[in-house]
């Protein structure tokens, strides 16, 4: 996935009120950027770190930039939680994820019961619902999700189990926006209920696919599927 606009480089001053971040651009201008990540951003938040922003020309927006990535320990970490959904849609549509190839119809934001899944795909043989989550938290060699308690995430897992019970394919797709990790796992200490729900979902036949991506100021590209421990 290529960025549509040239990103703007700067330095993080601080992130606050969850959705705002003050940035100093290279020319010395101080701006406020929108932070799409509502989580704690644990292990990917460092004042004084390099960042990249997307300029936004929308008169309805109070902030004129969207925060895309931050450099942590020498490598870029993607923090825009809107990117994984777009990337997943493009890669499934193009058949770039081997486990999710062969679908003739791929749609975004499809309702199922009282939930809404990020992606729905089908062919003559099967129907498939895919929920996508952004992963940016790191602990040692592990990529962990979530970085804050998520009752919404627990609900998605339970609904995926319902999908599977109705003999359709159910997939939990984690997009890991950092290159310095080797294994995916649920963050049991942060949200033990989510970790338990993920274990139950896996045992019920919900597929877990953790995909690592390489983040650069020009693009975000799939790298590999990571092993996982639940």
TrEMBL record:
CDD domains: SfsA-like_bacterial. Signal peptide: none annotated. InterPro entries: SfsA, SfsA_C, SfsA_N. Residues 83-218 form the Sugar fermentation stimulation protein C-terminal domain. It comes from the Bacteria. Transmembrane segments: none annotated. GO terms for molecular function: DNA binding. Residues 13-79 form the SfsA N-terminal OB domain. Belongs to the SfsA family. This is Sugar fermentation stimulation protein homolog. The lineage of its organism: Bacteria, Pseudomonadati, Bacteroidota, Bacteroidia, Marinilabiliales. The gene is sfsA.
